[in-house]
Amino acid sequence: MPRTENFTEALQLTHNFDPSVSHSARLEAERYLMDLRESAEGLKLSFHIISNEAVDELRCFWAFNTVMHHLPMLAATVDAEQAQEFYHTLLSFIHRYLFASPTVTPIDYVVNKHAQMMVVGLQLFYPARWQSIFDDLFEMLDRRPTSPYLPTADLVTIYVLRIFEYIDERVVCVRDRQERGKQQQARDMELKDAMRERVLPKAADMWYNILLSDARARNPDMARLCLSVMQTYIEWADVNLFMTENWIHLLHFLLTVPPLQVAACECLLSLVEKKQLPGIKMRSLRALSVVDSVPRMMSLFELPPPSEAAVLFMEAAAKFAVAVAGQFLSLLDTCASLAQQQPATRSAATVEVSGVVLRDEPFTVTADLLDGLAGALHAVVGQVILVLQLNLFDVHDALLPFLQVYLKSAYLLESEAVELLATLFHQTRIPGVAYDENRIWDDTVIDQRKTLHNLLRLLHRRRPDLVMSHLHSLLLTGLSRLSEGGGATRASTAKDDADFTDPEVVEAALRYLYEIGESLRLENLKDPNDTITQLLQRVLTTEAVVSGEATCVHLAFFEVLGRYYLFFTYRPEFIPLLLQRLLLQPCGVMSRSDRVRARICYLFGYLLQLLKSQLGAYAADMVNALHSIVTTAPQLQPGDRRELYEAIGILLSICSEEASPALDGSSSEALRLLTASASMDDYGAAVVTSAVLAEVAPLLGRKAELVHTVVGSALHSLQQASASCAGMNGGAAGGSGHAAARSVAAAERAVADVISFLSALAKGLGSTESSSGAGSAAGSGASNGLASSPNGFVPGQWRMGTNPNASGVAVDGPLAACGAPSDAPLSTSSAMSATGLLVAQMFLHVTQRVMEVANQMAGSAVLRDAVGQFFHQLINTLPYEMLRPYIEDYVTVCLNWMEAVPELSKLLRLMFQYANKAGNRGVLSVARLTSLLWHRLCAVGELSEASPVVCMGVVSESARERVNVYKQFFTFLFSVSTWGCVAAFALMPSACWMSILRQLCYALTLPTELELPKSALQVLEKLTQELTDPVVAQAVAQYSSATDVVDAATAQRNQQVFSECLLQEALPTAFGALADPSFDLDDAKNFLLLGEVLQLFRVLVARYGEPAMQVLYERVAPYVGEATAMECCTVIRDQPRVNAALKVKMKQLLSRVHESQRRTPANPLT
């Protein structure tokens, strides 16, 4: 026997917490026990503990686990005699533990663990070697102490039940079946077959006797365990063992025993769901008296349920009811199908399932049989509806899946549909929502209502007339009562679903109307006699709906109007009433509830976008109302104001420009200064002061005056917020502590919010092409339309001008004092209206102030982000010449203060939007900014072997951020090449340009799933097409005066570097990646990448000719032969485009290259 001193000490260290023991000592003890468990000495020690030692729970647990670990090895090595000896050794422990006079009272978890160990052995040794195990178990039950009050009596029963329970878990349960090998699955099937034949009849008698004894009253937990074990065996045992009169009576009796109700109901459910052929299934359902069982179970319900156990029983009964109904529905479908055959008699058909031949009971399909099945189905469905009406959330999940199936069936009766419709609608009500309006946002409530509304829509598809009649009657009746009652102000206790004086009911009815709209054709709203049209008119004109205090009703009201927005297109006379509800009443955008108000503000903007063609006559008045709201309503949150400022912008964009005789500039000096600013070459002299703008705004009409008022007010708010923040920073500098820091952060957040309001205003102004001209399209280099970027992104074209070569007004910007010249000669914008000039000048003043704030508070990340969002929208508002100096200043500020990689990604997204705006006028600006951006990107980290992106097959989070920012940068390069600024790359410093090209080439070697190779290939292809010598020469000549950027020698050197990179590095690297045997040619993404490489090759051949052809030839000729290589190069060159056939041909060629490399790895190109 091995020494046990260390073993005992290790057990104590690992299983008892002792603060004085170090963590390393505890780990050492765990390693010792694990090593001992693996060893033969550990197995011997386990047998000694089981056979000879007095029972110690901790030592026994370890011994049982060790034996379980060694059982597979023992099963493969011991003979029959040794196996039998081993079995008796294990079983002797439980005999000593339960039947000898123990010194301590037996403990159930020791019994359970021993049962687990025996089942592991049974799975390996039964039935060939442990043949007597079940006989021994049944004998143990017979040897139980006669006194039921001895603890060992029930422990013996529990031990045997656990054996059967663990057999089901290890042998039968399907959740682990996929992990078992075929040999183990065959052994499990052999064990089940042996148990069916030899064991289960006795087991069924054992379970029956246990349940029939007084144990159900004395030890309900044991009886419940017995029912639970029995239920798991019903699925694969012979069902006739349980379909006896005694069993059925016993199970129905146990339904009346509260502790056993759920378990008994689940056993009956398993009998109902037992897979059987139709004839046998009908006999089984008759034997179980299922039609009578359902109401009998319902009669046992305790309402309201006093405990969780009562709810569980109701849920189990609901599952039983829908299972019975489902069986009858399936039998009806089967019999209806058989009735169409001749003869209509079902013979004793046989079916083979998994090698087992099953014989059905013969039956004849008659009208009486069909009527009987239909009657049984409708009787059970009636009970299901009654259970549904209890409106218990836990019961819903059991009922609703069946109802979805039944509503689609042909057996749904009109009366059942009526009952279901009323019940489903009633349950969409949210109890208590009149007092706790936050309940409408509860995830559980939302999910439950979604399911119920899905059923209502399904019912509408089956019975549209019934549902529309119910909806019409419900709303008209309820609205009439509401008008008489004076408003929805109280919560009723009655279940009257037409009592609209209860906000709970009104909200549910409006949601009902909203959800049904998903199944309707909204074009029908043009019919004045349409049901929905009439209901919408009634809802909209009923003042009591919106005059109440319940914000949940207000929200549902506007959701309905948003869903049926076409109503206002066909009935524009109701638009003023809609605007009154939204803007002038407390139910609208000034709602007292923050969450409701946020949603209504969003819906307001949504309706504006959809109805703006009908709102022109009301736009000016709406702007006045909204401006008053955003500047005076204290309850508005920043998000609400953003939505409303965007709405103001939309309205300003659709306001008509009123003609004015002063537009010729002869009647007003201010107006003359404004109009002259668009054509003056000296942009420093073209500054239009705030006083001039204030004087000229009234002369230009209502729209210009509104723009001046709104923008001026927002600008004043920005000045106040920034001044307050500056004062707060000054006060915090002299103080310390978290309170000061929180105050500063709140002040910075306030400034960022005001800037976000200006962004939203600019977004709204740019949301329609009908707004007055104040900007210009990209230059002629981008006039051929939009090209998609490497990532498939195409920026939206929000233009405020119509002349693609128009120049806007420009003023001195932050970089003008540094002598930064304009990128392109300026031209007069004949298409720009005076109001458009006013808009541009107003936002120019805003931009100046925003950049002042950005420079003062550059250390605030939240402010930098808000300014970035502002420029995203400003790009669509200001002309390029005005915008350029501020964009350059903003980029410089951001790059100097940037703290995180995602900030750089956002900045790059702004930059390719800027490149689109600039077109061929932005060459110098893009050249400057690209160099700055690249230096910052290099600080993030290069793509190189020294800093791998993929390490051990995994992309780390930091590497993923780096990949994303490079993806954005490649998109920017593609945008610049597409939109006319490509000459900027030739004007960059050579070191910067070479570094960019080196990263593009390295990106070609990265895994395809990162998408960088595809982006890099597209960029190189576009550069090859656009960055030509004539383009560069023209740019050098055009911008020769900009000596700080333009240098002819640098441009020439950059072009030479580019050509050398393409032919000596990029193309060889691309083909080298394809020729690598690890490149999976069958991967769909790789197939697409192959097409991109071929496209780059064709473009290079078109530009450079023979040198490009030579790259591919030298790569493949050593493996496929010179003739084949030359033929491949020629075919790719001569094809008009890269199509699927060409890619397949190249794939076949690469397959030969891969195969040749695998055969001869030491090739000259490896």
UniProtKB/TrEMBL annotation:
One of its GO terms (biological process) is tRNA re-export from nucleus. Residues 407-633 form the Exportin-T C-terminal domain. It comes from the Eukaryota. Gene3D superfamilies: Leucine-rich Repeat Variant. InterPro entries: ARM-like, ARM-type_fold, Exportin-1/Importin-b-like, Exportin-T_C, XPOT. GO terms for cellular component: cytoplasm; nuclear matrix; nuclear pore. It is found in: Cytoplasm; Nucleus. One of its GO terms (molecular function) is tRNA binding. It holds the Pfam family Xpo1. Residues 109-268 form the Exportin-1/Importin-beta-like domain. PANTHER family: EXPORTIN-T (PTHR15952:SF11), EXPORTIN-T/LOS1 (PTHR15952). tRNA nucleus export receptor which facilitates tRNA translocation across the nuclear pore complex. Belongs to the exportin family. This is Exportin-T. The lineage of its organism: Eukaryota, Discoba, Euglenozoa, Kinetoplastea, Metakinetoplastina.
